[in-house]
């Protein structure tokens, strides 16, 4: 289980799970050759928005390089890594003015930027809209299931 602002890296027959993503973004990285995967549950789009910066998975700019390093420790190679993104919803769209991007949108954008800097392509995503999601990432096969009450199961 990967809680808010937390991360996990494993390989083989492990499953990495993040429940209840609203405006948070789950970034899933995978090396298909070694079956090494990583999952970070990103809370905020930038370190400048928080006093507590102790958890590297809390922000995209620290989560992406941290996951890449930890995955490398298990044999993954950066050039083979592929990313999938889930979450970044605007859970309270009706309450905002609409003139400022929501935290969810900013989380998605900042995660794309961090992945771009790392040279990791995003191959699939289920982001935005106005509903929550959960992620089930099965490392043996690389299968990533996005589950939501409103929309059932989607495979990325």
Task: Give an overview in words.
There is one protein chain. The chain contains two helices and nine strands; from the N terminus they run E-E-E-E-H-E-H-E-E-E-E. By secondary structure, the protein is α+β, with helices and mostly antiparallel strands. The chain starts with 6 loop residues before the first strand and ends with a strand. It has helices at about 60-75, 105-120, and strands at about 5-10, 15-20, 25-30, 35-40, 80-85, 120-125, 135-140, 145-150, 150-155. Helix 1 packs across helix 2. About 20% of the residues lie in helices and about 35% in strands. The longest helix is centred in the C-terminal third of the chain and has 16 residues, at about 105-120. The strands form two sheets. It has a five-stranded mixed beta sheet with strand order 1-4-3-5-6, covered by helices on one side. A four-stranded antiparallel beta sheet has the order 2-7-8-9, with no helix packed on it.
């Amino acid at each position: 289980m990967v809680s808010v602002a937390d991360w996990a890296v494993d390989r083989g027959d492990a499953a990495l799970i993040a429940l209840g993503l609203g405006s948070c973004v789950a970034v899933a990285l995978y090396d298909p050759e070694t079956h090494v995967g990583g999952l970070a549950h990103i809370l905020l789009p930038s370190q400048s928005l928080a006093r507590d910066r102790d958890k590297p998975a809390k922000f995209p700019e620290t989560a992406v390089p941290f996951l890449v390093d930890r995955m490398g420790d298990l044999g993954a190679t950066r050039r083979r890594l592929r990313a999938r993104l889930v979450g970044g919803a605007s859970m309270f769209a009706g309450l905002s003015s609409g003139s400022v991007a929501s935290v969810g949108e900013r989380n998605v954008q900042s995660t794309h930027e961090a992945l771009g800097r790392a040279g990791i392509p995003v191959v699939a995503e289920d982001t935005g809209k106005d509903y929550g999601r959960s992620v089930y990432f099965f490392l043996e096969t690389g299968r990533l299931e996005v589950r939501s009450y409103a929309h059932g199961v989607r495979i990325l």
